[in-house]
């Protein structure tokens, strides 16, 4: 979809953000501007239970928010004035309405990840001293909880007058194990909106006077979704498209039917899209593969129009590929919240979706985004130039090096924070906040993020090695859900460890094939950055709010619970005495028993430890226990005595009993 707006037209439109400087710069001022200045613009598009598109404008948006505020004012009547209230809900059209409504009752809003576990949510409520929570959960909390349906049924205050709190409280992602709550005032968020002021200098597609439908996929409790989607695009009167769910099919449906022009997400999602396209093309015929490769090469400027042939003369081929993904109407895509894989950037940009890289932090909001129209510049994966009102500098321990810690100064850094339940003023060094990110700034002013300071691995030659970079080499292997790289000291050396989470359909028999693929990739990595040890994780790799692996948690588990990690080429661990039996018979029997356990429990065999108890550790029940015994009897041609039912509890117990029965019957070596 072509954009015909000039830089001057876009600048005039974005200059409206400067109107906020004429107000008190509170959340109240943002809300009133939206529902009056943008009253007739379409605010929300969503899908009802029948999959039909529904929508309403910003005037109605305001009416809905006031309606909820009148009911919440009654529901909150016993709360201490100005006490925080938690908001824990997944993205729906009601999320922003409840956010504004809670503020209108005079209570700051504590924004909580809808996926956060109950105990962790309780911890956040206690630390923030919140006195209530708005949530769609049935489990009770230590503070009063209010569900949307209950709120609507509560008495309505007729003479309601908004009291307007002016704080939003954001929770850290906890990727390094630290728990912190950052407090953003209305002034900080107003300045975040005003930060868009210099966008038209580099692009007329990120924000312009025309129609923009942005996919509301990023969690709105997270600073990326809150600032870059909710605040920016609501303020400018654009439409937020809410998908029916977060599955890939739901997102694609929302993009196509909702005609989404803008898609912002984290690298993990873009990686998945790129990998899906690559796998799809690998199964296509040669003609289709050649066409796909030519589309990418032309869109990236790697071949001339003459070499591209019909692809250059018509956009049909590119649109044909785009229809299989998000549709051909997409104008602008941003990846933020982590390291963007260069191969991912190449594929997404290559199919005609302009994917840009951005940078922000919970403590600092959205600070910069690459906005160049030149695809070759985008492929360098810089985070661009800083936004209006943001200043960057590099803090270097060694002045001779280009890289160092990125420092940020702006008018929308968080003003206060809560750590361990203690609220205090945020402290900055000469107004600059240390990000913990290693970066370098090139001569043209573009900034490149290299990795996290706390995650940095020191190589044998003293070189800084960044796990984000190493992880990108191993992405896209079918069957591997996630990878996590970290440094681990063994003696005097810090080894590079890679932990893989495999799909539940992968069996341990396939481990050698996976190890072969990993080794092939590892051979191509520069010597100082090669992975020293590979492991399969029996658990799921924990993912933070920003969709990054929580390296701290995985590394801690690696140190404290090595039994949760399986070597790709390790033999089955034997923990009971099988004295008197041939080792080959023991290993084959354990393998066979585990296979039956896996089949009955619907678990991959590598997640079943030899000593894991059927019901306590593996979640089995009495019915599945009987089924499992029947399967074992068929597999090994034995009959397990009923008096042993319940006494045999794990793989080792059953393996020893099977060996005993088969030895007595002279059947060893004759397993089916």
Question: How is this structure best described in words?
Answer:
The chain has 672 residues and is α/β, with parallel strands linked by helices. Among the domains are: 457-567, ANL, C-terminal domain (GMP Synthetase, Chain A, domain 3, 2-Layer Sandwich); 583-664, ACP-like (Non-ribosomal Peptide Synthetase Peptidyl Carrier Protein, Chain A, Orthogonal Bundle), CATH 1.10.1200.10. 35% of the residues lie in helices and 19% in strands. Strands 6-5-3-4-7-8-18-19 form an eight-stranded mixed β-sheet, sandwiched between helices. A five-stranded mixed β-sheet has the order 11-12-13-14-15. The protein has a four-stranded mixed β-sheet with strand order 2-1-10-9. α2 crosses α3 (58-75) and α3 (58-75) crosses α4. The protein is globular.
Which labels suit this protein?
single chain, 672 residues, alpha/beta, GMP Synthetase, Chain A, domain 3, Non-ribosomal Peptide Synthetase Peptidyl Carrier Protein, Chain A, eight-stranded mixed sheet, five-stranded mixed sheet, 22 helices, 27 strands, globular
**Spatial order of strands in the largest sheet:** 6-5-3-4-7-8-18-19
**Mean of the pLDDT scores?**
90
* CATH level-3 fold name of the domain at 457-567: GMP Synthetase, Chain A, domain 3
Largest sheet: 8 strands, mixed
Low-confidence stretches: none
Helicity range of the residues? Answer: 25-40%
